[in-house]
Design brief:
single chain, mainly alpha, Ankyrin_rpt
């Protein structure tokens, strides 16, 4: 009789099934959507992309935990520090230079600091250029401290920062420029009407 009581209660049936061997109920919809869409990467890659650590744990427990380097690259790109930490510390996942480059581009300082400290993949010149283009001074400082030997185009960086009106970024980059670059930057500031940058450049001139 007690079995009938349980089986006639939809909520209780759902809870019982959720703990049976196989795919947890909470993960079924996620997996079903992944299969239906025919996506090229693993289901755990996409859970990483949205930063769902609980889902990553469920997927790992039921045979759907396979990862590609895209998992951490995407988690870092979107600023999901908890997912990045889980993938590194628990799953020992791989990643590429895209992880740090994209985190730098999107201004995710916590992720940038973590990757610089814990990972060895490093970044490319794009990480510096994108950080400068978006005015992320704090991030370009961290990159410079951890990857001082990475070559990057400082002239292009200050030109893009100037065009976008990032005064603090221009100020940080200014001491590292040649007189020829500064002439170009001055023209860019005038063209875009960035008065504060124009004043900064004129004050720093010879």
């Amino acid at each position: 009789m007690s079995c009938l009581v349980v089986l006639s209660n939809a909520d209780l049936v759902e809870r019982v099934l959720a703990y049976q061997p196989g795919v947890p109920l909470a993960a079924r919809a996620f997996i079903a959507a992944w299969k239906q869409l025919g996506l090229p990467h693993t289901v755990s890659d996409y859970a990483s992309k949205v930063g769902d650590v609980a889902m990553l744990r469920r997927l790992a427990s039921c045979g759907h935990g396979a990862l590609t380097p895209k998992a951490m690259d995407w988690a870092a790109m979107h600023g999901h520090i908890d997912a990045v930490r889980y993938l590194h510390e628990t799953r020992h996942a791989a990643c590429t230079v895209d992880a740090l480059d994209q985190a730098a581009k999107n201004g995710h300082l916590g992720v940038v600091k973590y990757l610089c400290k814990e990972r060895s993949e490093g970044c490319t010149s794009n990480g510096y250029l994108w950080a400068a283009s978006h005015g992320h001074v704090d991030i370009i400082v961290v990159l410079s401290a951890h990857h001082p030997h990475q070559q990057w185009n400082g002239a292009l960086a200050i030109e893009r920062a100037t065009a976008a009106g990032h005064v603090a970024m221009v100020q940080w980059l200014l001491p590292r420029q040649s007189p020829l670059t500064l002439q170009s930057v001055l023209k860019i500031a005038v063209y875009h009407g960035h008065v504060a940058i124009l004043q900064l450049l004129l004050r720093s001139g010879p």
